[in-house]
Specification:
By secondary structure, the protein is of the alpha/beta class. The chain is built from 13 helices and 16 strands. The strands form 4 sheets. It has an 8-stranded parallel sheet. The radius of gyration is 20 Å and the shape is globular. It starts with a strand and ends with a strand.
Length: 352
């Protein structure tokens, strides 16, 4: 079976619920979509939402770099993605690598007639995902929490980092509202400074937060290495973690983080994410699999990858929920906050 046709699209998709984090607000997702068709029934889908705020990548760069290599894909035999390393390595845009890498994995597994997670070595059956509450006032935070818990979500991720006093008030009131049955995790998006982090940890000690994601800017994370291990274990790297070099540096003792947030769009796809996951597993670091505002193509790819990694502990794969349109259907089910693959070949997707 060979690749006979390649289609590339670029689209800006408005969000049905814009949101704010510590550094910026988001109202739309700028996505690229790649389709690989064959002379048989197999189809491979890939997508990415490059994020300039994260690593300087853009949808324009991803689209242009993918467009430049399309002719090299036509006529090639369907094979494990590693056999396309010559093309993937020339893509400087992480979003471009991600879209092609996902499409190649989907095509490979679809041609083999099995779900991708099974080909990768499935270790987990299903996992709950968190759903995100953006920065806002107390009333908005509590209203969103009521909505999500009524929809069955059992894990809430709250964006913080603009106002420490307000953040603490929001979290205290949120815990009062949801009780102990709902897990709460927070994401600082590099909005704090070291002294503020200590204040946050002290003020929320009784709230039972699962973890605090990237509270400090990348250049200040060494302050975390001096914290007691019990506190470090509850800190998660996100903006400080882009590639295997970062993973190796962050795994060196004394570590600044006990957890890693792996996002395919930061590192450039499934292949790179699995390399980071291997470093984490060797170092005893737990993983959360995260996302941007992304097509369910990207969410399905992250889910299948997560289910095949031993260090996986958490999912934060809600980036498709607020898109006003998408490139695909299928991929997984989401019931009462739990994500499950469909058990169909590849990623189980159908193109729109």
């Amino acid at each position: 079976m060979r690749i006979t046709a390649v289609a590339l699209r670029r689209r800006r998709v408005p969000l049905s619920r814009p949101y704010a984090v510590a550094s910026h607000a988001t109202t739309a997702a700028a996505m690229v979509l790649l389709q690989l068709r064959t002379d048989g029934p197999a189809l491979g889908l890939g997508a990415a939402t490059p994020e300039p705020e994260v690593n300087g990548d853009t949808d324009a760069a991803a689209f242009a770099q993918l467009e430049a290599v399309l002719d090299e894909l036509r006529g090639r035999a369907v094979a494990p993605p590693a056999q396309f390393g010559d093309v993937l390595q020339r893509l400087r845009s992480p979003g471009a690598r991600m879209a092609l890498d996902i499409a190649l994995h989907d095509l490979w597994a679809t041609a083999a007639g099995v779900p991708l997670c099974e080909l990768l070595g499935r270790l987990h059956r299903e996992l709950p995902t968190s759903v995100t509450i953006g920065i806002g006032d107390v009333a908005a935070t509590l209203a969103q929490a009521r909505e999500y818990t009524k929809r069955g979500f059992t894990v809430l991720k709250v964006k913080i980092g603009q106002d420490l006093a307000l953040d603490v008030e929001r979290l205290v009131r949120l815990r009062e509202q949801v009780g102990d049955a709902i897990a709460i995790r927070v994401d600082g998006n590099v909005g704090y400074r070291p002294t503020q982090l200590l204040e946050l940890l002290r003020a929320t000690r009784s709230l039972g937060l699962e973890f605090v994601e990237q509270p400090l800017p990348r250049e200040q994370i060494d302050a975390q290495r001096a914290l007691p291990p019990a506190l470090v274990d509850r800190l998660m790297a996100d903006e400080s973690l882009h590639d295997t070099a970062d993973a190796q540096a962050l795994a060196q003792a004394p570590r600044p983080f006990g957890l890693f947030n792996v996002k395919l769009v930061k590192c450039g796809g499934i292949t790179a994410a699995r390399a980071i996951a291997a470093i984490a597993a060797e170092a005893g670091i737990g993983l959360m699999w995260g996302c941007m505002d992304e097509s369910r193509i990207a969410i399905a790819a992250a889910l299948h990858t997560a289910l095949a990694c031993p260090a996986t502990r958490y999912l934060d794969l809600d980036g498709h929920l607020d898109l006003s349109a998408d490139f695909a259907t299928g991929g997984f089910t989401l019931k009462r906050g739990v994500l499950r693959p469909l058990g169909q070949p590849g990623l189980g997707l159908a193109a729109r």
